[in-house]
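2024-03-11 09:14:02 DEBUG pipeline.ingest accepted 1 chain
2024-03-11 09:14:02 DEBUG pipeline.ingest length=160
2024-03-11 09:14:03 DEBUG pipeline.predict start
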Amino acid sequence: MLRHCLATLASAFALATLALPACADDAEVIETCVTTAYSSGGDAHVCIGRVADPCLQKPENQSTHDMMACSDKETKIWDAMLNAEYQRLLNAVEGKAAEDIVKAQRQWIGLRDADCAIPYELFDGGTMSQPIGANCVLAHTANRMMQVRSWREMVQPEKD
């Protein structure tokens, strides 16, 4: 059943990807929020939802497909930021540290997928499981970006 849920989750995200592409302005909203939070010593977690939440508030985005698309639109931004931080981190280390980072990232992907498949089981694959699952992927991706960034800053601090 879990394999079916993961396949459903993957195909749901593929459909949502087609609906609302992330645009440069949306990425700027998240990146500016994160930069401001880090430079002021604040918590970048407040940046999660800066694109998805306003999208979800629009009356025209109340269908399951549209709700998933709103979350996916922001997930793409966090995922791009995560990939950039991950590459920066890998470029800043070598040897066992690099191997451990790659191993941890692969394991994180499996954990994210397993965690975000749970709503499909809890709601028996019902309609609400899809936007909840999409929001789960968004939150996990944003949190992972912040984790990877903190590791990267340990070995390669930001220059003022």
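2024-03-11 09:14:41 DEBUG pipeline.report The domain at 2-155 is CATH 1.20.1270.180 (Substrate Binding Domain Of Dnak; Chain:A; Domain 2).
2024-03-11 09:14:41 DEBUG pipeline.predict end
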